[in-house]
Amino acid sequence: MTLQAVFFGAIGTLAETSELQRRAYNMAFAAADLDWVWDRESYARMLREPGGKTRIRTYAEQAGDRVDAAAVHAAKQMYFAMLLAREGVDLRPGVGDLINAVQARGLLLALVTGTDAAQVDALLAALPISRDDFDWVGDRTRAARGKPAPDLYYAAMDDLGLLPHHVLVIEDTPESAQAAVDAGLATIGFAGEAARGRAFPAGVEIVDRLDRDHLNRSSRASVIAAE
Question: Alpha carbon of 27 to those of 10, 20, 154: distances in Å?
């Protein structure tokens, strides 16, 4: 079987957003009169636990504070969208070329992210791509369990009528890459700033930039796997 689809597994595979996200959290904390400040090193560690509201709840418990995690996270989303609109953001190296190659070959393109729909929309509004470029766009509502569970990948494959050996996944953190691996999918580790230097699951190819040749290599690997 040949390659039929490429799945970008997170908004961070499209653009480097970790610093804008961190700043948005700190702005939300200040607006809520919390004396929390997440520095870069601390935030990088927190990203090992997927889910923004979960991170807020965990930090509140450790700090001995009581907060409305949902409200704080909603404010963070507002500030994140504001920063994106004000400062802009670029596609990561090779992303545009790879998307063009996927579309030129008539392959399916999906964004299998577990973040909130509002963040997805805010990022895509700041980039030279849109929802219309994707055949499937996920968010945390599309599966009962978020990453590192593989449920979002199962949902995307079910909706698009794909088998695991049809799909190439691009992920930016080891935890999210594990979700793809557990779903039986060939995976490229395209580490974002917060995940650089960390170990990805066995069998995951690590790259610093994306290029069209990933499609050729993945097509050959799919044929071998099918045999």
Answer: 23, 10, 35
